[in-house]
């Protein structure tokens, strides 16, 4: 039996998952789906910064547009460390189209004129 705290919403349900993937303790069906996914193939949204040239600030905050496999998070961070964008940067602008072959884009989360 595994115990998890759901992160889908602020409620933070304490769930238990048995060997057959039966979930107990979840308030909503999204919690059960989260628990099963977390135990079979965990994913994470990656947030970080990239270098930017020609802007007031030297770094621009970015995030993955969708979750990436948890085992690829370090690869994503390494790729972001090599990226430099040029101002102006718009919110939602694609910084990397397909990060590490995951099919997930990395987008800017701040506007930098």
Describe the structure.
With 113 residues, this protein is α+β, with helices and mostly antiparallel strands. It folds into 2 domains: 2-40, no CATH class; 47-108, CPE0013-like (CPE0013-like fold, Roll), CATH 3.10.530.10. The protein is built from 2 helices and 10 strands, in the order E-E-E-H-E-E-E-E-H-E-E-E. It has helices spanning 29-40, 73-81, and strands at residues 2-5, 14-17, 23-24, 43-44, 47-53, 59-64, 68-69, 84-86, 94-96, 106-108. The strands form 3 sheets. The chain has a 5-stranded mixed sheet with strand order 8-5-6-10-9. A 3-stranded antiparallel sheet has the order 1-2-3. The protein is elongated.
Q: Give the biggest sheet.
A: 5 strands, mixed
- Range of helix content: 10-25%
Cα-atom radius of gyration: 18 Å
Count helical runs. Answer: 2
The strand line-up of the biggest sheet is 8-5-6-10-9
Instruction: Give the tally of structural domains.
Output: 2
Distance between the termini: 52 Å
Tell me the name of the CATH homologous superfamily of the largest domain. CPE0013-like
The low-confidence runs, each spanning 5 or more residues with pLDDT under 50, are none
Shape: elongated
CATH class of the largest domain: Alpha Beta
Beta strand %: 25-35%
CATH fold category name of the largest domain:
CPE0013-like fold
Class from secondary-structure proportions: alpha+beta
Mean pLDDT, to the nearest integer, reads 96
Annotation, overall tally of beta strands: 10
